[in-house]
């Protein structure tokens, strides 16, 4: 059932698309805000604190990439990116910036609404705080790039932290190993599954009370890893 309080923010330079999509989302039970450029969109995001943001990649002035990067520096709000491209490089760039989903133009309003509903459902109950995330006795501060366990600082290498942050920003969603490698080491890096396993093992020994029975870093065998 749609949460009547859920607010979506649509950022796109196409006024006709904004009007039609906004009407469709309101019919589906969402409150809908619109912005025709990134500057206005970021201002509305700061003022209205929407539950989800939909942003187009190609916009004059501030691009969708810049909007996503600025949003992610301040918030963990779910982000869906609209793009006319379906290339792997663009998707990886988006995931590195912290977006949650992609929809390729042209798309149906029904498909986008379904993805919005699914993202909001996953976000409900997810531990989210400004600039970071908290899960039980574990706290990750994205702004300070620091990790604490039972209020004690955890000493992580740069790569360990980047791996943990990558998974934490996608909390409750399985991240494929290929995506982990691309986001942590870069899309041009020819990493191996074994190397990722080594870093997961090292992280578990630093943040899990029982590394053999982890509560935070879980393995979805054959798919990837998930932060709970």
| Number of helical elements | 8
Q: What is the β-strand count?
A: 12
Q: CATH homologous superfamily name of the largest domain?
A: Response regulator
Give the N-terminus to C-terminus distance in angstroms.
24 Å
Helix-strand makeup class: alpha/beta
Our Rg estimate from Cα atoms comes to: 18 Å
Extract low-pLDDT stretches: none
CATH C-level of the largest domain = Alpha Beta
CATH topology of the largest domain: Rossmann fold
What is the number of domains?
2
Strand arrangement in the largest pleated sheet: 2-1-3-4-5
Order of helices and strands: EHEHEHEHEHEEEEHEHHEE
Concise synopsis of the structure shown:
The protein has 228 residues and is an alpha/beta fold. The chain has helices spanning 15-27, 38-48, 64-72, 88-97, 109-123, 158-168, 177-184, 193-207; strands spanning 7-11, 31-35, 52-56, 79-83, 101-104, 132-135, 138-141, 146-149, 152-153, 175-176, 217-220, 224-227.
